[in-house]
C-alpha cells in the first residue's frame, strides 16, 4: 500500500510551504495571502498541463514540476509582477507504478525552482485519476497597482522588442519528436530549451512604466504578436532578419537550405519560447536596454507598431513573408 | 470543426468575468485581485475534481460546474472568508461528442452559482486531455486578518457544533450507486444533497470571533473531527444521538433495523456533507445561535472538547460506538 493523502502532504508538500506563514503548513482548508505592499496589487494566473499533451509521459517528474511552475512564472512576468507563491492541483494516475518515487522527484523539482525564484507552495489538492498525470498551478505575484503590463496599450510608433532568442523550444520539440536532425550538441541545447523554459521574472517587473504593452510568447511569436495587435487596435511589423536567434537555431536554418523557409516558419510560429514580447516608445530605448542589462537578459528590437491591424513579417528583401498563417491570428 | 480555444473563451468564459474589473475580460495573461479591505486578508483555496472519481461521468455539466464551485466556497466558509471569485483550469477529453454543448451547460452552471453567491470568474486555462474531464478551481475570499478560522484553536470545555444535517450526501451516493434502497421521494432528496452541496457561505464569516476552531465536513464527520482534535491537541466527544439528521436520513436508519449500525456508521463517516463543524466556548452559545439564525442555517451542539486526543462517539447508552475507524484518523 502506498501512502495516504495526508502522509503524502506531510512528506512531500508541507515542507514546500515553509517560509509562507499564511500557508499554515498546509494543515487547513485554505491559505492566507500576506498584505500586498502599499499601492501594489495581487496578480493571479493559472495554467494546466496534461501528460501526453503539454509534456511527454515519460518526462522526469522534476522537470514536469519545474516546467509547470515556470510557465506560470512567465505569465506573472508578462504582467510585470514579482512572483510570490502558488497553489497546486495534482491528479495522479491510479496505476502509476511507483507514485512515491514520482512524487519525490516532482517535489524535488518544485523545491529547486522555489529556491531559484524565491517562491512558496501555498496550498494544494492531490487526487487520483483514471487518466494521465494532470496538474494545474495557480501562481501569485504582485505589481504596482495600475502598472501592470497588458496586451492592450501599444501605440503607433512604439518599438517592438523581444527578450532572449526565439525558436529554440519549437526546434527542440522537433528534435525530441524525431522530425528534426541536428548535431548532438545542438540537439541537447534545443531540447533543453523546450523542456525547461526560462521565465523572465527579473525583466518583467523592470518593464513596468517603460513598456506600453506586453505578453509572454507561448503560442508562437507571430500569433502572440497578433494578440497585442488585436487588443491594442494596431498593426505590428516584424523584420524577420531582426528576430534574435541562438547559434543552434541559426545553424539549423542555415544548414538546411531546402527547408530554410520551413525552419524559419517553425521558429516564428512554433511557440513555447516564454520570452517577453513588448512595445515601448522610442524615447525609452536606453532605459529598456538598461533594465534588460540589470535583469541579465538580452533584448532586441524586432519591429515597430504601425497603423492598421494584424501582424506583418517582412523578409530581408522588404516583402512580407508568406505562409505564416496559423490558427487565424496573423492577419495580413 | 469545433471552436478554437479563443472562441471558446470569448463565448463561454469571458462573459463570466464581467463585473470583476481585474479579470480584464480574460484577455490577458493574468488577473488582478482588488485591494483587500482595510485589515482583511485574501484567502485562497484549491480543489480538483475528476470525472469518475469526484462526480459521475454522465452527470450534467451544469451540476459538475456548480459542485466544483461549491466545494471551494465551502472551504472559504470554513476559514470564515467571504467569497469573491475564482480561477478555473479545465481539461476536456479530446473525444467528447459535443464539446460546445458540454461547455454551454458547464458555463450555465457557473453562471447560476456566480449569481447565487455573488462571485466572478477571474481567469482560467482550458486544455484537452486523453483522459476524463478534469477540473480545478482556485477560489478567493477575504477575512478579517487574524480572524480566520483554523483547525487548531479548540480548547477543553468548548462546545462542538455542526451546521445543517449530516449523512444526506453519503446516503445519497449510496442511492445513486444502487447500494441503498429508499422511497422515491427520499431517494431524490438524498441524491440531490450528494450532487449539489450547500456551502455555508453566510454562516462561516458570522463565526469569526465566536468559533475557536472549525472546518467543513468533507471526509466524514468523525474523520474531520479528528483533524480538529489533532491540530488543536485535544479530544472531541460526540454524542451520536445529538448529531442532526434530516427526516430522510432518520427514516433510512429507523426503517432498516438490521442495517441500523451500518446506516448510522455511513452517516457519521460518509463525507461530502460540506457542513461546518466548529468549536466555541459555552459562553458564546447565544451568539452562535443568533449568528446561525441570521445566516438562515440550523446549528446543533453535538458534543464537547475534552482533555486527551482523538475522537470518541458515544451511543445513547453512554458507551463509545465501535467500528467507526476509517483512514486511521479516529483514535479511540
From TrEMBL, chains A, B:
<comment type="function">
    <text>Catalyzes the ATP-dependent phosphorylation of thiamine-monophosphate (TMP) to form thiamine-pyrophosphate (TPP), the active form of vitamin B1.</text>
</comment>
<dbReference type="InterPro" id="IPR036676">
    <property type="entry name" value="PurM-like_C_sf"/>
</dbReference>
<feature type="binding site">
    <location>
        <position position="54"/>
    </location>
    <ligand>
        <name>substrate</name>
    </ligand>
</feature>
<feature type="binding site">
    <location>
        <position position="218"/>
    </location>
    <ligand>
        <name>ATP</name>
    </ligand>
</feature>
<protein>
    <recommendedName>
        <fullName>Thiamine-monophosphate kinase</fullName>
        <ecNumber>2.7.4.16</ecNumber>
    </recommendedName>
</protein>
<dbReference type="GO" id="GO:0009229">
    <property type="term" value="P:thiamine diphosphate biosynthetic process"/>
</dbReference>
<keyword id="KW-0808">Transferase</keyword>
<feature type="binding site">
    <location>
        <position position="219"/>
    </location>
    <ligand>
        <name>Mg(2+) 5</name>
    </ligand>
</feature>
<feature type="binding site">
    <location>
        <position position="272"/>
    </location>
    <ligand>
        <name>substrate</name>
    </ligand>
</feature>
<dbReference type="GO" id="GO:0005524">
    <property type="term" value="F:ATP binding"/>
</dbReference>
<keyword id="KW-0460">Magnesium</keyword>
<feature type="binding site">
    <location>
        <begin position="124"/>
        <end position="125"/>
    </location>
    <ligand>
        <name>ATP</name>
    </ligand>
</feature>
<keyword id="KW-0784">Thiamine biosynthesis</keyword>
<dbReference type="GO" id="GO:0009030">
    <property type="term" value="F:thiamine-phosphate kinase activity"/>
</dbReference>
<dbReference type="GO" id="GO:0000287">
    <property type="term" value="F:magnesium ion binding"/>
</dbReference>
<feature type="binding site">
    <location>
        <position position="47"/>
    </location>
    <ligand>
        <name>Mg(2+) 2</name>
    </ligand>
</feature>
<keyword id="KW-0547">Nucleotide-binding</keyword>
<feature type="binding site">
    <location>
        <position position="151"/>
    </location>
    <ligand>
        <name>ATP</name>
    </ligand>
</feature>
<feature type="binding site">
    <location>
        <position position="75"/>
    </location>
    <ligand>
        <name>Mg(2+) 3</name>
    </ligand>
</feature>
<feature type="binding site">
    <location>
        <position position="329"/>
    </location>
    <ligand>
        <name>substrate</name>
    </ligand>
</feature>
<feature type="binding site">
    <location>
        <position position="75"/>
    </location>
    <ligand>
        <name>Mg(2+) 4</name>
    </ligand>
</feature>
<feature type="domain" description="PurM-like N-terminal">
    <location>
        <begin position="28"/>
        <end position="143"/>
    </location>
</feature>
<feature type="binding site">
    <location>
        <position position="47"/>
    </location>
    <ligand>
        <name>Mg(2+) 1</name>
    </ligand>
</feature>
<feature type="binding site">
    <location>
        <position position="29"/>
    </location>
    <ligand>
        <name>Mg(2+) 4</name>
    </ligand>
</feature>
<comment type="pathway">
    <text>Cofactor biosynthesis; thiamine diphosphate biosynthesis; thiamine diphosphate from thiamine phosphate: step 1/1.</text>
</comment>
<feature type="binding site">
    <location>
        <position position="29"/>
    </location>
    <ligand>
        <name>Mg(2+) 3</name>
    </ligand>
</feature>
<feature type="binding site">
    <location>
        <position position="216"/>
    </location>
    <ligand>
        <name>Mg(2+) 3</name>
    </ligand>
</feature>
<dbReference type="Pfam" id="PF02769">
    <property type="entry name" value="AIRS_C"/>
</dbReference>
<dbReference type="Pfam" id="PF00586">
    <property type="entry name" value="AIRS"/>
</dbReference>
<dbReference type="InterPro" id="IPR036921">
    <property type="entry name" value="PurM-like_N_sf"/>
</dbReference>
<dbReference type="GO" id="GO:0009228">
    <property type="term" value="P:thiamine biosynthetic process"/>
</dbReference>
<keyword id="KW-0418">Kinase</keyword>
<feature type="domain" description="PurM-like C-terminal">
    <location>
        <begin position="156"/>
        <end position="314"/>
    </location>
</feature>
<dbReference type="InterPro" id="IPR016188">
    <property type="entry name" value="PurM-like_N"/>
</dbReference>
<keyword id="KW-0479">Metal-binding</keyword>
<dbReference type="InterPro" id="IPR010918">
    <property type="entry name" value="PurM-like_C_dom"/>
</dbReference>
<comment type="similarity">
    <text>Belongs to the thiamine-monophosphate kinase family.</text>
</comment>
<keyword id="KW-0067">ATP-binding</keyword>
<feature type="binding site">
    <location>
        <position position="125"/>
    </location>
    <ligand>
        <name>Mg(2+) 1</name>
    </ligand>
</feature>
<feature type="binding site">
    <location>
        <position position="45"/>
    </location>
    <ligand>
        <name>Mg(2+) 4</name>
    </ligand>
</feature>
<dbReference type="InterPro" id="IPR006283">
    <property type="entry name" value="ThiL-like"/>
</dbReference>
<feature type="binding site">
    <location>
        <position position="75"/>
    </location>
    <ligand>
        <name>Mg(2+) 2</name>
    </ligand>
</feature>
